[in-house]
Amino acid sequence: MNECIVSGWGLTNPVSVRQSFPKSIEDLENLINSAHPKSIITRGLGRSYGDAAQLEKANVVRMDNFSFIDLKIEKNEVTTGSGISFDKLLNYIIPKGFFIPVSPGTRYVTVGGAIASDVHGKNHHVDGSFGNHVKSILILNGNGELQRLNKSSPREIERKQFWATIGGMGLTGVIIEATFELIPIETSLINLFTRNFENIDLLLEAMIEADKEYRYSVAWIDSLHPNLRGILSCGDHALLTDINGKNKKNPLEKIQDHNTKAPNYFPRGLMNNFTIKIFNEGWYRKSITAKKHNIETIGKFFYPLDAIKNWNRIYGSDGFVQYQFAIPDKKVELILDFLRKLQDNKIPNFLPVLKRFGDFKNGHLSFPIKGWTLATDIPANYEIAMELLDDFDEKIVDAGGRIYLSKDARQKKETFKKTYERYSEWKQIKNEMDKNNIFSSSLAERLEL
Ligand SMILES: Cc1cc2nc3c(=O)[nH]c(=O)nc-3n(C[C@H](O)[C@H](O)[C@H](O)COP(=O)(O)OP(=O)(O)OC[C@H]3O[C@@H](n4cnc5c(N)ncnc54)[C@H](O)[C@@H]3O)c2cc1C
Fold this sequence. Notes:
Layout: E1 2-6, E2 15-20, H1 25-33, E3 40-43, E4 59-62, E5 69-72, E6 77-81, H2 86-93, E7 98-99, H3 111-116, H4 124-127, E8 134-141, E9 146-150, H5 156-165, E10 173-181, E11 183-184, E12 189-197, H6 200-213, E13 216-221, E14 230-237, E15 260-261, H7 273-289, E16 293-297, H8 298-302, E17 308-309, E18 320-328, H9 333-344, E19 350-357, E20 371-379, H10 383-399, E21 402-403, H11 413-419, H12 423-433, H13 442-447
Parallel strand pairs: 2-4, 3-4, 15-17
Antiparallel strand pairs: 1-2, 5-6, 6-10, 7-11, 8-9, 8-10, 12-14, 12-16, 13-14, 13-19, 18-20, 18-21, 19-20
The structure holds flavin-adenine dinucleotide.
Flavin-adenine dinucleotide is lined by residues 9, 41-48, 52-53, 63, 82, 104-106, 109-110, 112-114, 116-117, 119-121, 169-170, 174-175, 305, 406, 441.
């Protein structure tokens, strides 16, 4: 056990914790059986932006020693330890012709973290979120019971506990291992289609059309531009017949490691409207001159931010907040409303990203609802921005939307309870799986989860 300070990826709200690295299920059982109420939370690679994987003075359980990979090629599925990172998993399965069913925008997350957040990717409109592809989970619940939760179990209670754990933010127990489906691929390349749009209305229209044609789609918006112009990137896994030249030599190449490291210190206020405007202009122009159809590596398409290790430090020691909301299709005007409010109040915000959500079965606390999701990074030291977000939360509530728990560092419990309408049902299951409420987190405390 070691004492240290941890925070989310946004670097706000650091807390001091004790970290433990159990080596066996027996070690874990000992930890859980001797735990007090609200004293344990599991932590993956700490890529949730807010306060989900931490709790002041608590025991933070790291599953680094649970990192096996058991690939079942003939079934297109894999069983892994919960502590394995997507990075290690991908570099094992890609050369064997497989890709993960859903990927967030970084490969430095663990399987346990991906399940507990029920992460979504650029393919939600086609494939749903990660939980939709999980077949079974081995979990040690808060009562110290080892449970194998199968999605297709004939027992209703088991199915309920399964879905309460998918997106359950680590509060039903420690996920030890999981079995999930994989996508067979012929190459580790993406057939990419990129288009610039001079205003947001055209971009939104094109994105709805892209739902029908492409497995993956994502849009970046130049939120400082008067027309809110943007770039739409869509793609599919490239087939062997799509590639030629040097790509043919090793079509299932591993992902290249990042080689750039951000400095430890960045001046406060570096991310301001001036610097972001320069970046946005360059980004938009680069895309205009680039080819519309291209073959791109999985690394560059899915994980552009992973190219710079610890890029989160560019916001300085105050850190940043990632505000990500989901809204139903019919409330699309809120995207414009939100971005205009940021503009009118001159609030710097970086890399706003828009994705589409499809209609899929979800965990009780899973984030996606059919429609749109927008995420953007805002420096945490802009007081006026935080006030604006509080006001905007009200609009999200009225629109029937919600804020993503894995990105959240600031929403109020009232907002959460009004927007995650299956919360009470989830809480009942959590109370059964963790009778003494030993699992908690700063997020859980703040939102009374
Ligand atoms: C650059 C970047 C891009 C991202 N893009 C996306 C995206 O596109 N889509 C998306 O959905 N998310 C995205 N995320 C968020 C990220 O995918 C999630 O927060 C994910 O849960 C992080 O995984 P982790 O292993 O770091 O978990 P942590 O951040 O350490 O923990 C997240 C939650 O999982 C729980 N947990 C972790 N391991 C276990 C376990 N073994 N058992 C039980 N509970 C556990 C923790 O208690 C916590 O509640 C992004 C994050 C970054 C930094």
